[in-house]
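Q: Joint fold for the lines below.
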Amino acid sequence: MTARIGVVTFPGTLDDRDTQRAVRVAGAEAVPLWHRDKDLKQVDAVVLPGGFSYGDYLRAGAISRFSPVMESVIDQAKAGMPVLGICNGFQVLTETHLLPGAMLRNNHLHFICRDQKLRVETNSTAWTADYEPGQEISIPLKNIDGRYVADERTLDMLEAEGRVAFRYLDVNPNGSLRDIAGITNAAGNVVGLMPHPEHAVEPLIGTGRTDGLGFFTSILKNLVGAR
Amino acid sequence: MTLDTVKHAEQTPEAGQPWAELGLKPDEYERIREILGRRPTGAELAMYSVMWSEHCSYKSSKVHLKQFGEKVPENDAMLVGIGENAGVVDVGQGYAVTFKVESHNHPSYIEPYQGAATGVGGIVRDILAMGARPVAVVDPLRFGAADHPDTKRVLPGVVAGIGGYGNCLGLPNIGGEVVFDPCYQGNPLVNAGCIGVMKHEDIHLAKASGTGNKVILYGARTGGDGIGGVSVLASETFESTGPAKRPAVQVGDPFQEKLLIECTLEIFAEKLVAGIQDLGGAGLSCATSELASAGSGGMRVDLDTVPLRDSSLSPEEILMSESQERMCAVVEPDKVDRFMEICEKWDVIATVIGEVTEGERLEIFWHGEQIVDVPPRTVAHEGPVYHRPYERPSWQDALQADDANKLARPANSAELKEQILKLVASPNQASKAWITDQYDRFVQGNTILAQPEDAGMVRVDEESNLGVAMATDGNGRYAKLDPYAGAQLALAESYRNVAASGAKPLAISNCLNFGSPEDPDVMWQFAEATRGLADGCLALGTPVTGGNVSLYNQTGETAIHPTPVVAVLGVIDDVTRRTPIAFKEEGQLLYLLGETHEEFGGSAWSQVVHDHLGGLPPKVDLERERLLAEILISASRDGMIDAAHDLSDGGLIQAIVESCLRGGVGARLVVPDGLSSTGSATGDAFTFLLSESAGRAVVSVPRSEELRFTDMCGARGLPVTRIGVVDGDAVEVQGQFQLSLEELRTAHTGTIPELFA
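A: Joint structure:
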């Protein structure tokens, strides 16, 4: 039996079907989860995909954190269930305080869509075990509110605890502090990042590389190995 | 104020009415009175005024557009033709594709962000209304001079609007164009295209049938925005009153549209609708009259049930409002409950506003009193038809006699090099990445090719790898010199772009942007362009599935260049065989397909170096285009080429630079013998590098495939010339000059951010 990975759809979520596909490509079972439903359908892990949940008119992720499905996700994440937040999902995770910091509008004030080089800084999370520490990958980035900020103390803590999971290479596309593209919680089960691994799981599609597939194979090994 | 009911109209035949303010002409108002046998009520007048506007009724263009239905090539791919929300073509494996391009030019000048945003929203709903899941969008754009101060207002707003709206819908933006020319200064062109995919059995049509079926309005509430958008805004020439018309521009809510898309697709999946129509231009007036006109039977609507954003709106305003993100469905009574459940799931407001009736009238009531009683066909489909006078402009001969081939050419290699560097950095030839990087091209996870590739391409089926491609092109400079040839060149370029990506061109749609139809010069351009396009489609075997006409694109007396934008849709059986433009492997051979003549009329070179427009555009040879496309498609399918790039504005050198920069590798070129050339010391090299002869492409061929490839071209009679090799980190033209990739990249990518960032 393979792992069941839940993919949440909020109204305004855009990358849910792409994420379900990435989960399947990695060999796991994708389970759609609906924002109004507290029931997580006994999934082993959850991905919060990208998009503009509830329109993001107030602040990205600000409303989603109060949705019924997030009550369960927050509880389960605290109990150790792996959760990955991509783009809008990362924004939601910071709004719930499962991850520290916040995302502001890009420093150039424009939406930006590009093939982004990253360094995977740690492989001791549930979602990055299949990468080598320091490995360089390229996956799509696309957002308008992608500038990661936190106070100095928090940033120093993240660095000291090895919780900066991904850093932008070559170009810092949005003014994120310390080039941070993604972070993990202390336990390593909750990870959030702005770029989109689910858009880089098949050759030919998008950037033509499969550098993002490791997120999904990592979690699969983590879950199946744990059984 | 008393309600202007039908009864009241009968009793007060001589009451004054604001038909002129609503954009109607005296004879049109008279005709409405004739049809009804009385004066129209205020609500009826509102409906006729928007539906008989140029934008909705095609009254000036209809007589010319007829050709698209008459000169139809033999092609069994057409499933739904002209007249529906969008045409539908068969792409095989049970899939059908629908696609369309529409203009949102005037609103985007008045209010760039919302104008462009709602342009995207409108075309997406058109596609959705056919029963299809929208899978990609494209945006052909034209702006005034790149360095004009007002372009700095319009372009960033338009780009942010397209991104702000499109990115929130989860539709990859895979193509389009950005062109600058002073002729668009007071009248930018913002065209928006969308592609949708469905199974054959899921095609939906806009018609209301079945007495007793319910008419359901769903989506956003109706507000006071966009009132008269199609009539006073889109169907009149701009004078200096631009910003005063701002209330005629709609305001978009992409989040609501995303919900509407998902909700509608779920409704389709459960087969809950008998007919469906989106609300765009002319709002409820259009949706109710078109649904009723196309179906059998009539329709009764209780207008006071329409959910409003502003409770003070009058019935006339509700009928004319172009508030976005609304759809209208006809649903059998026993399916209404389930329909409502799905809307509730997606937090979409849905209201039964009426039903299909037995008669043949469209009847609208306001709190029980009848305010509209009309034969719907007279509103929707039997509007006025004009045979506008047209005549070849008096200046056309002089323009064509002003031969660009006689312009001063570069005197030596150094000057040639300098001009080429200037060309690739010029706003029209420069990289548009700063613009297109503001659009999401990856969402949905099916994007195979996106800008700056020749055509955008998306995968349709994950199992079989079936895909579709689309390109849009339209060179206004060529069309100004010769509208007949210009329209065919637009078609040929778009067709060639699709073929260069490896897809087989199937059908076309168009967006015809012209000046005022009341000007005989403009009408001649329009007549010539439509004739050229219809003849061209017949020759290439690509039927016209539908289109859009945008007239009155002018400022005062000055019309824009005639700008027929042609969108060609292609199909590819296996997307893994697609051909990108990037040169990659050093050592691969570069071949030029087609013939190069001295053709500089309307060329990018003549514009950039001499600020000149005159002479004749490149010659059109559609048989050659067809052969070239066949070769490109075969070579892609059989793995004979690794890259292909069509040649168009900027000629060979522009294509080479783009392919080199895309792949991050250089090229060494040798000027072939035997090109006709006159004049200067740079002779053949100048023509070789900068002529814009049509029917050409450059391909990169692995050495192992060289013989097979050249044999195929030889056997089928396509001229093919070996022009060089992929190599190094510079573009070198032997005996002439060398430009490093770094130098080229700086020139090519620096311009647009410098102007607009």
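Q: Anything notable?
A: The interface with chain A takes residues 160, 163-164, 167-170, 253-256, 258-259, 346-347, 436-448, 459, 462, 575-576, 578, 757 of chain B (CB under 8 Å). The longest strand of chain B covers residues 133-143.
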